[in-house]
Design brief:
- The protein has about 325 residues and is mainly alpha-helical.
- The chain is built from 13 helices and 3 strands.
- A 3-stranded antiparallel β-sheet has the order 1-2-3.
- Helix 1 packs antiparallel against helix 2 and helix 6 runs antiparallel to helix 8.
């Protein structure tokens, strides 16, 4: 893909659509501004993911919307983005610029009222082992999976994580979360090994003598996109044979659930996840009935007291 050419083609298509909406449809300036913002973001996101916008498939656009949902966009915002995308590609089909409309049956991601299903420990192990080899992209994909599970980062926090904010000695990440609030998040030995391998044999190969601040890079040596991270996690889940769909937020939920199952304090978990309120953290407290039973039997002083034998008369 010629990035410059793909960007110019997308920009031209957007300008033509906005002119048509203004002249032919009489849309207000506020509406036009909203369309422009949505479609500019779409173009940048697709190109960052290695997709020429005018060649985007239904799957590319669904992945883009899925990445927006993972980033915490509201249902109303996702619906607006979906409408903007449909408007653009419908216009391109009507103008004869593309042959097939990729937005047919394209719908905004469903509202998430609760956290996604957490992976079991076996599923997590299979997922983390699903990326093989020592090629730069394999090392990159492995380090993303390890960091997401080890630290519970949001996908937006991962793609914006800078190399200077990774402390290998103390095993800490300085993360900039929602509202530009910073927090420290620890990570373990498995993530440390993956980061070191990536920094030694992966990142330099993709960087190509350029200077980039981001820890994780795309195949061109720039900052990776949210939708690319989502695609990597989803593909790893499929290779691991996990029945349900797995995304970056599922790894965040798995991180939280496994920590709570291991006895982590809810307030400590709140700090690591970057939640403003502990009420938000409480959606991660849905642990299995087996764990609750095991915790009860291990903690309650009379849980293991043998019942008195029956009195024989």
């Amino acid at each position: 893909m010629n990035v410059a050419r793909a960007g110019l083609a997308h920009d031209a298509a957007v300008e033509d659509l906005l002119a048509w909406l203004t002249v032919e449809r009489g849309r207000s300036q506020n509406t036009i501004a909203a369309y422009r913002a949505d479609l500019d973001r779409l173009g940048a996101g697709l190109i960052e993911a290695g997709v020429a916008p005018l060649d985007a498939t239904h799957g590319d656009l669904a992945a883009y919307l899925g990445a927006l949902a993972e980033d915490g966009k509201s249902v109303a915002t996702l619906r607006r983005h979906t409408a903007s995308i449909r408007q653009l590609y419908g216009f391109l089909v009507a103008e004869g610029r593309i042959a097939k409309d990729p937005t047919v049956d394209l719908r905004p991601p469903r509202e998430r009222r609760a956290a996604p299903e957490a992976l079991t420990r076996d599923e997590t192990s299979s997922l983390l082992a699903a990326v093989h080899g020592d090629a730069p992209l394999a090392l990159r994909d492995r380090v993303m999976l390890e960091i997401l599970y080890a630290s519970g980062l949001r996908v937006s926090e991962l793609v914006n994580l800078e190399l200077r904010n990774v402390d290998l000695e103390e095993r800490l990440l300085l993360v900039r979360g929602k509202g530009d609030k910073e927090r420290l998040v620890p990570f373990g030995s498995a993530a440390l090994s993956a980061i070191r391998a990536w920094l030694l044999d992966g990142r330099p190969a993709l960087l190509r003598d350029r200077n980039q601040p981001w820890l994780v890079l795309n195949h061109r040596g720039g900052r990776i996109s949210r939708q690319s991270v989502h695609a990597v996690v989803q593909a790893a889940g499929e290779r691991a044979g996990i029945a349900h769909e797995v995304g970056p937020h599922a790894l965040r939920h798995t991180f939280a659930t496994h920590l709570l199952a291991g006895g982590c304090d809810l307030r400590v978990l709140q700090e690591m996840l970057g939640h403003a309120s502990v009420a938000t953290t409480q959606i991660y407290t849905h642990v299995s009935a087996d764990h609750l039973r095991e915790a009860y039997l291990g903690a309650h002083p009379r849980a293991k007291v043998d019942p008195a034998p029956p009195v024989l008369r």
